[in-house]
Amino acid sequence: MSYKLYNYDPSSGVAIPAAALFGLATVIHIVQMIRTRSWYMIPFTIGGVFEAIGYLCRYINATETPNWQITPYIGQSLLILLAPALFAASIYMILGRLIVAVNASSNSIIRPSWLTKIFVIGDVLSFLMQCGGGGFLASAKTQDKVDMGEHMILGGLFVQVFFFGFFIIVSIIFHRRMLASPMNYVGICHIPWARCMNVLYTVSCLIMIRSIYRVIEYVQGSGGYLQSKEAFVYVFDAALMCACCIVLVVLHPSKILAEQGKQYQKTEDLEMLTNRYEAGRNYDVLS
């Protein structure tokens, strides 16, 4: 049994606007990243490039219907599938830098020095599994090989959902501990950390919903309902990931984390002055 690349005729009229939106958002992210030197956004920016090229490849395939070429198909299949893993890598790093910026390592159940490493390692593992499965699936000629590729992708998606779910739990615990802190951390009043957390929750939920959709899609398999309708790709993948890009364009993390070094120094100065004040009071009492 031969494998059919698409179970529908892909639409060129939707693919081009999707590619354009991702391309525009990515250009803005590149400008913001360079201007603010927020290099932790490099994976996110690469993910945006993946999305834009992926939907451009999808447009190329749409113009070839029904004689689809394998190269654009492989491009759209892999790039659209893998982009959210790159988005997630930057999101992990944003939380780590936020924790350091507000000098609140004690409120995190994972030390900031380990937080980014743990989640990025999980992200890389998920990326490689999905990449391998996507490559295998794209070159499949029989249903057996299609099934094997889908199982590899499904395993990678499960890894992604697991680590991302754990990341959300870590974020919520950190947020709750910050709110429960007696003085809400003196010295960080100029860092709107709560707003940053809300931004992280928003983009995390978007990526999680998309990942769950992909899990269900590959559980159903190539003959499933989700893979038989192109609309699902745009509603539960393209639209959600585009929203993720737009949210971080409007509320770019550099607007908060750019103050990290300066705020760190302010916090240290405040602690030093507080210690001197307490030492002076103790001396007066003793004398």
TrEMBL record:
Keywords of this entry: Membrane, Transmembrane, Transmembrane helix
Topology class, membrane: Multi-pass membrane protein
Organism: Talaromyces stipitatus (strain ATCC 10500 / CBS 375.48 / QM 6759 / NRRL 1006)
Transmembrane segments: 12-31, 38-61, 73-95, 115-140, 152-175, 196-216, 231-251
Protein's name according to its UniProt entry: RTA1 domain protein, putative
Highest taxon above the source species: Eukaryota
Subcellular localization: Membrane
Family matches, as InterPro entries: RTA1 (IPR007568)
GO CC annotations on file: membrane
